[in-house]
Amino acid sequence: MNTPAYEYRLQKFTTAEWPAKCRMESWREILSRKLLQSDVRALNDGPFHVEAYMRALPGIRFGWGLFSPSLHTRGRDIVAADNDDYFFLLNLEGRFLAGQHQREVSLVPGEAALLSCSELGSYARPDTGKVLAMRLPATALNMIVPDAMDRVARAIPKETEALRLLTNYAYSLNDSQALATAELRKLTVTHLYDLIAIALGASREAGEQASVRTMAAARFNAMRKYVGQNLTRPDLSVGEIALKHNLSSRQVQRLFEQTGMTFSEFLQRERLAHVYLTLTDPASLRRSIGDIVLACGFGDISHFNRAFRKRYGASPSEVRRYEMERAR
Q1: Is 66 in contact with 130 (CB distance < 8 Å)?
Q2: Distance between alpha carbon 298 and the CA centroid of its chain, in Å?
Q3: Nearest-angstrom CA–CA distance, 238 and 240
Q4: All domains of the chain, ordered by start, with CATH?
Q5: For 72, which of 123, 193, 299, 326 could close a Cys bridge (C-beta 3.0–4.6 Å)?
Q6: C-alpha torsion angle, residues 286, 289, 294, 296 (rounded to 10)
Q7: pLDDT > 90: what percent of the chain?
Q8: DSSP classification of residue 20
Q9: Whole-number Å distance between alpha carbons of 206 and 191
Q10: How far, CA to CA in Å, does 94 sit from each of 36, 109, 128, 173?
Q11: Cα separation, 215 vs 239, whole angstroms
Q12: pTM higher than the cut 0.85
């Protein structure tokens, strides 16, 4: 695996943009440079297809995507030229089979396994499916999971909360894009390591430290994402979010209060931002302001108008008028 300057921004690769005759070779070369060197071959006669997203941060590289049926093998030459990094793989869709460490593991959707870059191995996807994979140095993981090698090629049950939080956390980095500051990058890497350690069943002391640092942040991140997906629903409530994430209503309130806002304040802020973006979207200039406000989850127009002016220093109509004038 090459080690260029860290690519903080999300990178997308799709074989649909490449000529069919060179898709396999092109994908093999990208995968080897960015994440994991292996020999790759298709397992069916149809066109090979990959749609993948990758990101590199100090101390961890990760990617996720959709893959055609394929077999990856790592023979002696490949392993000898590699290092002792670990490869944490979470199966998101379809079947995934891995053989390593004199073990074979079959992962159903939602299950995960730790693999080693220092050992021979084969990884098969019998049918089209999705996967989330992370590569991290052995020295870093061994500090928080000293017996990590003993956990190689063992299935981690899909019911493990840390796996669900890890998936949501990695996907949410879509929104953060550049992670422009060193502090943000360090915090993100710490959270990813902690969630992996918890999922692997780190020692009690290390697990407790990781849990204190990260579980609350990951849970809040999952709830924030859920709020964003359901902003337009006027009945969105703390109780529903608590039930969705297996927490009490008070726990949900506390997590939001750690941001300096109550749940209601957070929800209002997000809805106001959604209204603002819609008002300034040229494609929505013909929609009435009232329609936009109601569609964004507000039930009381008067309350909305006061809150909007307080936050943006202008009325919705003034914001829209300015946008129309600017667009001319």
Answers
A1: yes
A2: 29
A3: 6
A4: 11-229 (2.60.120.10), 249-327 (1.10.10.60)
A5: 123
A6: 80
A7: 30
A8: G
A9: 13
A10: 21, 6, 6, 24
A11: 20
A12: no
